[in-house]
Amino acid sequence: QVQLVESGGGLVQAGGSLRLSCTASGRTFSNYVMAWFRRAPGKDREFVASIRWTDGSSNYADSVKGRFTIARDNAKNTVYLQMNSLKPDDAAVYYCARRSIVMSRYDLWGQGTQVTVSS
C-alpha cells in the first residue's frame, strides 16, 4: 500500500526558510500530480503548490509565488517544497497529497508536518 510521509517542518523566524519533503513508499508516481496543501488553525485547507510527476510542470497559489518552489526527485520518490521568506501567515500544518493526472480529486494524503513561523 502506498503511503506519503512528510518531514521537514519546524519552527523558523519570519524571513527564514524551510524545506519540506514528502516521500512515497511503494510504487512510483509517473501518472500522478503531487501537491502540497496547508491548514492553519481556524481556516480551511488551502492549495499551496503542485507538480506533475512526468514533466515537472508546476502550479502555485498566488500567496506563495516567488517564495516557494516545488520540485521532485524521481529516483527518491520524493517531492520537496522549498519555502523561503516565510511569513507568520505561512504557519500551518502542511500536507502532501497525490492525484491521478486524469482526476481532479486528491485521493492519497500524508499525515502532515507542522510549520511554525515566529514574528
Let me know the number of strands. Answer: 11
String of helices and strands: EEEEEEEEEEE
Low-confidence runs of at least 5 consecutive residues: none
Oligomer: single chain
Q: What percent of residues adopt helix (DSSP H or I)?
A: under 10%
Shape: globular
Counting helices, strands and paired strands, the structural category is: mainly beta
- Would you tell me the overall average pLDDT? 94
Rounded radius of gyration (Å): 13 Å
Count of DSSP-assigned helices: 0
* Cα-to-Cα separation, first versus last residue: 40 Å
Strand content: over 45%
Account of the 3D structure:
The model has no long low-confidence stretch (mean pLDDT 94). The chain is built from no helices and eleven strands. It is an all-beta fold and 119 residues long.
